[in-house]
Amino acid sequence: MLIAIIGENCVGKSTLANKINEKFKAKIYSGKDYLRLEKNPSVALETFKNILKESVLKDNIIYIITEKEHLNLLPAGTFKIVLTADITVIKGRFKERMHGNLPLPLEKMLEAKHGMYDNLECNLKLNENYNIEEVIDKIK
User: Is 116 within 8 Å of 66 (Cβ atoms)?
Assistant: First the structure.
């Protein structure tokens, strides 16, 4: 099974992936992790696409996506979860990552990207207040 967790920066994608992984024991990839698969980036990309395609039917993989360009890597049959959070939550989490400082250009970039996945077709749309047991049940 291939599960894609899609969302903006700091909405809790990795946390959700780890919680789902407790049940499904999946291999977790994030962003461009696939570049570690091969020395040549284009070969690595093709290898990763094949891994994702095969995982729909046999292996458990969770792919964490922040950038829209990575949506094109998802084969048919992917279980897509879009995770959202309020912009104030996102800013607070990002500020924490930045050791208490959120530069104005970064804040503006977060605001500009906010809602970028609101209209994406998916199997499950969650906010930061999801119930993990309900999520697991829906994935099953």
Answer: no
Let me know if residue 19 belongs to a domain: yes
pTM of the full structure: 0.94
Counting every residue, how long is the chain? 140
Domain that holds residue 74: 2-85+121-139
C-alpha distances out from residue 101 to 8, 48, 106, Å: 19, 36, 10
Closest alpha carbon to 89 in 25, 17, 21, 10: 10
Residue 59 has pLDDT above 90, yes or no: no
**Which CATH number covers residue 49?**
3.40.50.300
Domain count, the chain: 1
**Closest to 80 in 3D by CA, of 123, 49, 118:** 123
On average, the pLDDT of the chain sits at: 95
